């Protein structure tokens, strides 16, 4: 395994482990493992973040855009995206922004991205 791949795998494992451990303390209606896995892979592969403490609201916003732009490739439904965002925002203790919650037909930005 190349050095950069090894480093990304280490970052992925650390973030996945930390988020999974913190998810066990919170009640979720469904298993949070898939959203955590997807988010951890995104952070490891598309950002320079190395620790959960470094994750900020901008990273979460970019992840939301990533999900919207790649939902077909990732085989995600709108429901999956909503659940994923809810899990990540709850785990990181962030305030939900309006666009994280607005899945109404009037949110043209969302629907344009989902075409």
Class inferred from helices and paired strands: mainly alpha
Residues in helices, as a percent range: 55-70%
Show unreliable segments: none
**What separation lies between the terminal Cα atoms?**
37 Å
**Taking Cα atoms only, what radius of gyration do you get, to the nearest Å?**
14 Å
Number of strands: 0
Q: Main sheet, how many strands, which sense, barrel?
A: none
Global shape: globular
Order of helices and strands: HHHHHH
Count of discrete alpha- or pi-helical segments spanning 4 or more residues: 6
Please, what is the average pLDDT?
81
Share in β-strands:
under 5%
Folded structure, characterized:
By secondary structure, this protein is mostly helical. 64% of the residues lie in helices and 0% in strands. It contains six helices and no strands. Helix 1 runs antiparallel to helix 2. The longest helix has 21 residues, at 3-23. The model has no long low-confidence stretch (mean pLDDT 81).
């Amino acid at each position: 395994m190349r050095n950069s791949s090894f480093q990304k795998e280490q970052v992925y494992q650390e973030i996945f482990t930390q988020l999974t451990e913190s998810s066990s303390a919170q009640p979720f209606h469904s298993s949070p493992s898939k959203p955590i896995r997807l988010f951890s892979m995104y952070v490891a592969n598309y950002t320079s973040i190395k620790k959960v403490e470094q994750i900020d609201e901008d990273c979460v916003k970019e992840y939301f855009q990533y999900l919207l732009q790649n939902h077909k490739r990732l085989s995600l439904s709108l429901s999956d995206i909503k659940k994923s965002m809810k899990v990540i925002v709850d785990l990181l203790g962030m305030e939900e922004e309006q666009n994280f919650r607005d899945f109404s037909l009037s949110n043209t930005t969302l629907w344009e991205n989902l075409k």
